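Worked example (supplementary).
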Amino acid sequence: MDAIADVDIGAELATQVAAVAAAGGAVEIVGSGSKRFYGEPIEALPIEVAAHSGVIDYDPAELVITLRAGCRLREVEALLARNRQMFGFEPPYFGVDATIGGMVASGLAGPRRAFAGSIRDFVLGAKILDGRGETMQFGGRVIKNVAGFDVSRLLVGSLGTLGVILEVSIRVIPMFETEATLVFRHDSADEHIRWVNQLGSEPYPISASAWSGGLSHLRLSGSEQGVCHATGQLGGDPVTPEWDAIREQSHEFFVPDQPLTRISLPSACTDLSPQAPQMIEWGGAQRWLYGDVDIDSLRRQADPLGGSVCAFRGHASEIRVFHPPAPALLKLQRGIKSSFDPAGIFNVGKLYPEL
Amino acid sequence: MPQSRRQKLAVRFREFLPGESVIDQPTSLAAYECDGLSAYREQPLLVLLPETVEQVQQVMRLCHEERLPVVSRGAGTSLSGGALPHAEGVVLSLAKMSRILKVDHLSRLAVVEPGVRNLAISEAVSSQGLYYAPDPSSQIACTIGGNVAENAGGVHCLKYGLTLHNILALKLVAADGEIFEIDQRSLQSDGYDLMPLLVGSEGMLAIVVEVTVKLLPIPRCARVVMGVFDSVEKAGDSVAAIIAEGIIPAGVEMMDNLAIRAAEDFVHAGYPVDAEAILICELDGTGEEVVTQIERVEEVLKKGGAVETRLARDEAERLLFWSGRKAAFPAVGRISPDYYCIDGTIPRKSLSAVLAGVRELSGQYGLRVANVFHAGDGNLHPLILYDSNNEGELEKTEELGSKILQLCIHHGGTITGEHGVGVEKLGEMCVQFGEPERNQFHAIRECFDPLRLLNPGKAIPTLARCAEFNAMHVHNGELRFPELERF
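After joint prediction of all chains, the assembly is encoded as:
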C-alpha cells in the first residue's frame, strides 16, 4: 500500500456539498477528468474528488479491496498485481490518472466483461455523500450480502448523478496463470457472431473476443493445462495480443477524428447490420462503429431487438449521448434521482436531459 | 376480518380469474399461512393464483384500487418469513406460471415464467450441455421468481455468483398493474441499473412475471477433495490458503463436529465423526486443469494441518461426499425437535473469532449450535437446536440468533448472506443500517410502490420498529457494540 496516498477529505467534501445544497447551486463531480467526455456536457461548478485517496482495507485472501474513490486506478492495479490479483472487468483508463470513483461512476468495462462480469457484478459496498451532504453506507465488504436494497451496485454507471462516491468495496479475482491470443479468419460480422456464440456453449476458458476487418481474435485465460488444451482444440494462429489497445481505443480501428458509436445488442443478434466499419467485442454484444451514422435510425432498429445505441464520442451536440429510456423506466429513474438528490445538485443532465 | 369483505373481494377477483384460482376457504388458506420460517403464521384474506401476465396485471389493478396489500409467493421456501401473508391482504402465488417459454442454445439463455422450479431449468437444458448455475439448497422446490426476490445463492456462488449474476432480463408488473422490463442481454445498458435493486428486493418493488436466465456450459470435469481437521481454526485458515494459491474452487463447504455427526448418522457419507471440522472442496473445469489443481489443494490442506485428506475416487463418491453437506439441515432436524437457521456472513479471516463467540453464546443460552458454512464466501449457517414445546425456548433461540447476527456485524459482516431479511431480521437491520440508509431504502421503495402495497412490513424496518428494537437491546443507555460502524 506504499504507493497510494492516504488522504481523507470526506469531511471537506461533505461541507462543500452541504454548502452548495444550501445555496441552491449545482456541481459537476470531477475526478481526474479521464472519462469526462462520457455523457452529456454540462456546465456546473466542478467539485474535485481525486484527492480523496487511500486503501481502507485489503487482505488478498478475502478477495476484496476497499478504497477511497480518488485512488488512481493504475496504482490500485499495481497493488493488486503485486498480490497476483486483478479486477475481473478489465476497466479502461482513457487517461493515466483515471480514478476508482470514475471507473465505478462510468461503469465502463473492458474486453473481459462478457466472460467475467461487469463492474456492477463485482461491487460489494459503497459509502456516498447524498444531495443533502449526508454520508451513507450501503452493502459491505463480504461477497454475499442481501440486507437492504443493493444501492452500491445502483451507483455503477450512474455518472455521478446520485451522489459523490467516497469509498467502494470491490471483489477481486486471482490473476490467471497464463494467457494466449489466437486469430481466425471470418469474412463477415455475422459469421464471427455465430462462431463466437457457438464457442460459448463449450467450456473453453475464453476471456475476450474481438472482430474487425475479417479477423476474429480470441483470448484464452486460465491454468496452463486448461489454456493449452483449449488451444489444441480450437486451432487458429497465435498472435501478439492487442487487448490493451482495444480497451483503451488506441487500436488502429478507432480512428480518432471520426464519431464513434457503441451499439449494444444481445450477443447472437445478427438482425442489425450497419453499413459502417465495425469492431465487435464481448462475444458479439458490444459493437463499435466509426464514421457518420444515423443514430436515430439505429436506435429505432435496436429498440425491438433489446439493444441500445450510445453516441460515444465525437458526435454532433444535438444528438443525445445515451439511448432514450422507455417512459416507465425514465419515471423510475427520475424518482430515484430525486430520492438521493432532491434539490438536483449532482451532474444534472449528464445522463439524460431529464435527470 | 369480517367474512363479507373476503367474500365480496373473492367475487370481484373471480370476474377475471378462474374460480379455483381464488382461494377463500379458511381450510385451504391454511396452507399459505407460513413459508419455510414456520414460527410466524398469518391467514391472508385471499390467495390468488393467476396463470397469465395479464391476470397478474388485473390482480394488481384491483389491489391498487382497493388498497390491498399484496404478498407475492413462489414455492414458499423462504427461511426469513419473506412470504408471510398480510392479514388484510392477498397472497399472490405465481406457482401456476410454471412454463419454460424458450431455450436459446446459441445465446445460452432461457426465458421462464416465475413459477418454474430452479432445478427444472437445469434439467430442461442438460441434454444440450448447459445448466443454470445458482443452486440454493432448496433447488428441488424453490422457484426462480423467489430466487430473484431473494437473490438466492447456493454452494457454488464463490465461482459462479448469486442470482443477480445469472439473470439477463426481467419482465415485471408494477404495483399499479403496469408492465416494465429490464433487459440486459446486451451486457451494457444506459441509465440507472435497476437490476440490482430488483433482484433481492423481497417482493417489495414489483411482481416478477418473466425471467431470462443465463445458461452456462456444464464443466467437463468436477472433483472433490475432503480435508479432515482437528480444529475449526485450521480448517478456516486452509480456505484462505487455497484462495491465496490463486485457486477459485467451485465450492468450499465446512461443517463442525455436531453437524458432521448429525449428517453422518443420517446419510452415511463416510464422514469422520471424531473430526472437529471437515472441508469439502470442489474444483471444476477441464480434466487436465482439475487434476493439477486438486493436487495443489490437497497439498494446501495437508500443509494447513489436515489430519487426513480424501479425494473422491469417482463420481459416485463425489456425490456421496456432497450428500452429507446437502442433507445437513434435515440431518440436524433428526437430532433435535426443532432447529433455527441463521444466515450471517463475515470476512473469512474472522471465522475463528466468530465461531468462538458462537460457542460462548451457545453455552450462555444453554442451546446447542451446529455450524455449516459456505466457507468460500464467508456465509455462516449456525443451526440452533431447540424444542418449541418447551415454554419460552423459541424466544430464547431467537434472542441467541439475534446475538449471533450482531456478532457478525461486529466483525464487519452482514446479517443475511442469502436468506433475506423478511420479518425475521427486521430488528437487526436497525443495527446494520443507520437511519439515513433506512430512510433511503424507504424512499427507493416509494419510487416503485408509492402506496406501499407490495409486501408491507418486510425487509426494511420502520422508525418505530427500530425504536422498539433498540429499547429492548440497549442496556444502560449503551448499544451492545458501541464501537461498531452503523451500516
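Two points are worth noting when inspecting this output. The radius of gyration of chain A is 21 Å. Chain A has eleven helices and 17 strands.
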